[in-house]
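Progress against Task 2.4 (sequence-to-structure conversion) is shown through the following example record, which the project officer requested during the mid-term review.
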Amino acid sequence: MRQRLDDEIKLVSYGRSSGFCVDPIEKKPLNHYYPGSSVLSFGTAGCNLACKFCQNWDMTKSREMDTLADAASPQKLARVAAELSCQSVAFTYNDPVIFHEYAIDVAAACRELEIKTVAVTAGYIDPEPREEFFAAMDAANVDLKAFTDRFYHKICGGHLAPVLETLEYIHHQTDCWLELTTLLIPGENDSEAEIQEMTQWVVEKLGPEVPMHFTAFHPDWKMLDVKPTPASTLTRARAIALDNGVHYAYTGNVHDNKGSSTWCHNCGELLIERDWYVLGRWGLDANGCCASCGERLPGHFLAKPGNFGAQRIPVKLSRYPGT
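Structure tokens generated for the chain above:
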């Protein structure tokens, strides 16, 4: 993605994408960030990790520039997001830290039009670019892939410590809204002991209000011989998180209304009902507080929920005039 051109190292994927799509924000997944809203999602190609279970391996592992079939300047991308009534733009499919310059310029263009920006990232980034990158983001879902360095080294080609540093930095030193996702893989990172240690760390170092998502693995790329994650594993992980003090824990990639819905930590009332990506009962008042007890729900909410639902709308930016 970077080449030496004119005696400089340049980001040759700048302004180019592997595709654009309008998604529900819950798909990122972000459950406490303008629920029911739509987000214009895109990625480029390549990655700085080598996860053997990658579900977007055709993009993240690609060495072919032809993968980048669509193109748009930051200004055009922001304008199209506004025309499509998207609340936000998401850098996703592959890790946006590797198209750092492009993502930051898109974020700047979006802010001029009051469009939010969301990073879906593994958080594997050095301190100096980390500061610049997350200063530009409004929200982030960070993949906390496991809680052992063995997993990161063996399965992902990386290390755990830099990710934990990123999580603490985002939560304590930026205004970027943070949620976490862990894809639970049978036999690799789904033991009760590891989930206990992970969730205890989250409560101690980040606080109980950071939402955690436990999602189901399905066989892909270099892990085709591993069985899919049973729904019971996700339910168990969610229960462990709640028992350890995490206020908002979710299950994902499975049909689980209870596990995917938001419940008031104080009184137990249903605040946001979810059936996959479709919202149902809404138990928040106009200020984002529980309508029953007045407890504030951490996150960012509009007076009324969005109704984008489970749509997925591919978008060709080349069809829009202008650059």
